[in-house]
Design a protein that fits this description.
The chain is built from 16 helices and 13 strands. With 470 residues, it is of the alpha+beta class.
């Protein structure tokens, strides 16, 4: 197998090759470090590369493999990156804030702990927007993160570094976080699979809930099976969690090997009151709906009826505002976060309680409308992507309005806590990936994963590679 093919081999297959001693963790880690050195100055997927630590870990795993017959964890020796909102002991953790660039984490958080327990080698920290607040990665003091499909365009955010790394063949799979689309948006921009699980599926430990329960850790991968297997690694209740779900009857990886059965699927191409998605995104939804119908599912147009997404916009923005105050003085924040931070200083506790009540009421209506269907199909974004720096000269309020429109199909399902998965379904005329989003019933990731794998078997997006990465 040539180096490029190996770099684009699935994480599950890489783990198998390591277990069978066809390749070693050290060889695979060195391959990815070489690709990062060559490609990442253009892509900007990693804000910190931990080459020495990764090579030491890979060497130790290689030696263990030659000396031990013990059963190995599922991703033993497979390299990955960790988003810069998750702490990795002895690596920087700055949340995309230049002031904190040299802040070294003293311990791993739970996501990192589970990744290490699964056997991953950590190549470094992937880039994020400042505080994970924006759907593109251009924080002051850092290089922007670009989609490897067209370097003039953004990789999306806030998990843009993870999405770009997976798409460019700098790692096979990576975790991300999603509080308003931050896994699904970079998946859409980078042409990969982005899985946001249900609220309570992945623990927020060692902290409490964040952003009124809207934020959850998810996965970015080139294949549905890799994303599902990584979700198996990350899932599980930790004592003290404010939310928890029953353990699934079968693993999420097993869901990729089962037929979903005939499903009732509703689809829409418009988000009220913002109107229709752009032509490329609308056509991707219609194409997917036709494909789903052709393989035996019951597919019909749906009306949101009982609610408009606009009901969520203001309470969601206010929740975003209050959570922008993380103890960093506003002077050190970029203009959108600085504007939100300033307004948060005047936010009262009573307001926050009312805002949460509004979000919970909206969530109930969303789940009620969606309950008519096994799955709903929507665009992931209102238009495919934006150019790097496109909104740089706009005011904070103008940027917020642009953000609200662009990512409109995503945040409602953070509020409702439903699982959702973004899937690459073609390209725009500019060569930018175009994505659709499947949304499931609460706690029913298995149906989404099974249906996504059914689509993947036909479309075969996992075989696509951007020219820069070959």
């Amino acid at each position: 197998m040539n180096p490029t093919d190996l770099a684009f081999t699935s994480a599950l297959e890489q783990a198998r090759l390591i277990r069978e001693k066809v390749i070693s963790p050290l060889e695979l880690t060195q391959l990815y470090l070489d690709r990062i050195e060559r490609l990442d100055p253009q892509v900007g997927a990693f804000f910190h590369v931990a080459a020495e630590q990764a090579l030491q870990d890979a060497q130790a795993k290689t030696e263990f493999l030659t000396q031990s017959g013990a059963e190995l964890p599922p991703f033993f020796g497979v390299p990955t990156g960790i988003k810069d909102l998750n702490s990795v002991q002895d690596m920087p953790c700055c949340y995309g804030v230049k002031l904190l660039r040299n802040r070294i984490a003293s311990q791993d958080d739970l996501v990192t702990t589970k990744m290490k327990q699964a056997g991953f080698v950590i190549l470094g920290k992937t880039s994020t927007s400042q505080l994970g607040a924006l759907p593109y990665v251009e924080p002051p003091g850092f290089a922007p993160t670009r989609t490897p499909w067209n370097l003039a365009y953004s990789a999306g955010g806030s998990s843009g570094g993870s999405g770009a790394a997976v798409a460019a063949g700098l790692c096979a799979v990576a975790p991300g976080t999603d509080g308003g689309g931050s896994v699904r948006i970079p998946a859409a921009c980078c042409g990969v699979v982005g899985l946001k699980p249900s609220r309570g599926r992945v623990s927020c430990a060692p902290v409490d809930e964040y952003f009124s329960g809207c934020v959850v850790s998810g996965t970015l991968a080139r294949s549905v099976a890799d994303g599902a297997a990584l979700l198996d690694v990350l899932s599980g209740y930790e004592m003290g969690d404010p939310y928890w779900l029953p353990e699934p009857e079968h693993s999420f990886l097993e869901a990729t090997q089962r037929e979903p059965g005939k499903l009732r699927i509703g689809f829409a191409t418009q988000i009220p009151p913002l109107g229709e998605a752009a032509a490329d995104c609308r056509e991707a939804v219609l194409k997917t709906a036709h494909l789903l119908e052709s393989i035996g599912h019951w597919v019909e147009p749906m009306e949101f009826g009982a609610f408009e997404f606009s009901e969520m916009i203001e309470p969601f923005r206010l929740t975003w505002q209050i959570h922008s105050d993380v103890g960093i003085p506003g002077i050190f924040l970029e203009k959108v976060n600085r504007d939100l931070w300033f307004k948060a200083q005047f936010f009262r506790a009573g307001q926050y309680i009312r805002v949460r009540q509004q979000l919970y009421a909206f969530a109930r209506r969303v789940v009620q409308v969606c309950s008519q269907y096994d799955v709903i199909l929507l665009p992931t974004l209102m238009y495919p992507d934006l150019k790097v720096g496109a909104w740089k000269r706009l005011s904070a309020q103008q940027i917020l309005q642009k953000v609200i429109h662009w990512i409109a199909p995503c945040p409602a399902f953070n509020v409702s806590g439903q699982p959702a998965i973004a899937l690459p379904m073609g390209f725009s005329s500019e060569g930018i990936p175009v994505s659709v989003q499947l949304v499931g019933r609460p706690a029913d990731e298995a149906t989404l994963i099974s249906l996504a794998r059914q689509l993947e078997a036909i479309v075969e997006w996992q075989k696509q590679r951007p020219t820069i990465a070959i």
